[in-house]
Amino acid sequence: MNDFMYTQCGPRSTFKPPLRGPETLQPMADHHAQPHGRLALVTGGGRGIGEAVCRRLAASGYRVVVADIDGANARAVAQSLGEGHHFRQFDVSEEAAVEAVFDDIEGSIGPVAALVCVAGVLLMPGGERSLIKDTTLEDWERTFAVNARSVFLCGRAYLRRREAKPVAHGRIVTFGSVAAQLGGYRSSATYIGAKSAVLGLTKAMARESAHMGITVNSVAPGLIDTDMLRGTVRSSGALDAAAANIPLGRIGTVDDVAGAVDYLVSEQAAYITGNVIDVNGGYRMQ
Ligand SMILES: NC(=O)c1ccc[n+]([C@@H]2O[C@H](COP(=O)([O-])OP(=O)(O)OC[C@H]3O[C@@H](n4cnc5c(N)ncnc54)[C@H](O)[C@@H]3O)[C@@H](O)[C@H]2O)c1
Questions:
Q1: How remote is the C-alpha of 239 from its chain's centroid?
Q2: CB under 8 A, 24+ apart: contacts of 229-238
Q3: Quick check: CB of 146 below 6 Å from ligand 1?
Q4: pLDDT value at 197 more than 50
Q5: Which of 87, 187, 205, 250 pairs with 212 at a CA distance of 20 to 30 A?
Q6: Is the pLDDT of residue 109 over 60?
Q7: Distances (CA, A) of 129 to 122, 145, 166, 168, 233
Q8: What is the domain partition of the chain in residue ranges?
Q9: Phi, psi of 40, deg, nearest 5
């Protein structure tokens, strides 16, 4: 396939992000208007929010690499997107796997323009959300590995490669959670701790990569209707009761979240970095 196109800038020392003062704005600016064929790598793309992100970015003109530990799901999503999209199966918490996949993608497809780190885990095997006093070190380490270490590994792999081979409008989007912001809400302390780490890491990555014109932001979903959320439901009517406490009066959809990611990776979001977009129906209004 030679339909892959991307905008490549010169060496790092000469890279100058475009000035976008009011005088340069187009009156009908559309945040979907971006070069076709930019490459997006979406972890956790095999189902749920990640799958919706893959579909939205593909619709916006991205070529998508659907990545997931569940290779069958990743393959099915990539195939459903049509020609020009890819899938990769790997565990985002494993350093060697992350490096190998980045080498493979960048060598065989092209430079990743947008990295979207959706993969995460809430419940441990058995569906437990343990209190701190009952939490094993193993559960703590696994939760941090999948939710937080993965963002470090994928973010580092991306930034190393973008420093060597810049792209215009580089983007990283990470996934926090309303649980980290509120210190609770249907989740365990391990998950809250790991997602809090993601929020801090997002800002650190934003600061360290700003000179390359790369933005790094996080999306913090509230209650979104996915397998992850439904795994926490213990009684019928529980989700309706939860929805009643949300100002917008409903549980969120995966498309609600995908829309926020689509904006953050767009060229129009070029002056937003180190930020968090809450997608929670007003649950954590400040
Ligand atoms: N659903 C919600 O209400 C909600 C709320 C707040 C935050 N989030 C966050 O949003 C993100 C997506 O959540 P979701 O509800 O779609 O979850 P989900 O469980 O439906 O999907 C998560 C995906 O990540 C993949 N994955 C898990 N571990 C992996 C690993 N080690 N390597 C590669 N892939 C792995 C899974 O196979 C799955 O396809 C997560 O980071 C989650 O913490 C979700």
A1: 25
A2: 229/186, 231/122, 231/123, 231/127, 232/122, 232/123, 232/129, 232/186, 232/187
A3: yes
A4: yes
A5: 87
A6: yes
A7: 8, 17, 42, 42, 12
A8: 36-225+253-279
A9: -120, 135
pLDDT computed for residue 185 by the predictor: 67
CATH superfamily of domain region 36-225+253-279 = NAD(P)-binding Rossmann-like Domain (3.40.50.720)
Residue to mutate (ligand 1; options 188, 228, 232; most atoms within 8 A of CB)? 228
Residue 114 tokens read as: 């947008």
Contacts of 34 by beta carbon, 8 Å cutoff, 6+ apart:
60, 61, 169, 266, 267
Pick the closest to residue 66 from 84, 51, 82 (CA basis). 51
At residue 104, does pLDDT exceed 70?
yes
* Structure tokens belonging to residue 135: 């939490």
CA-to-CA distance for 217 and 276, rounded, in angstroms? 6
Cβ neighbour number for residue 272 with a 10 Å cutoff = 14
**d(Cα 85, Cα 73) in Å, to the nearest integer?**
14
Q: For 34-48, 108-122, 246-260, 262-276, which range has the lowest pLDDT when averaged over its residues?
A: 34-48
Q: Does residue 256 line the site of ligand 1, with CB under 6 A? A: no
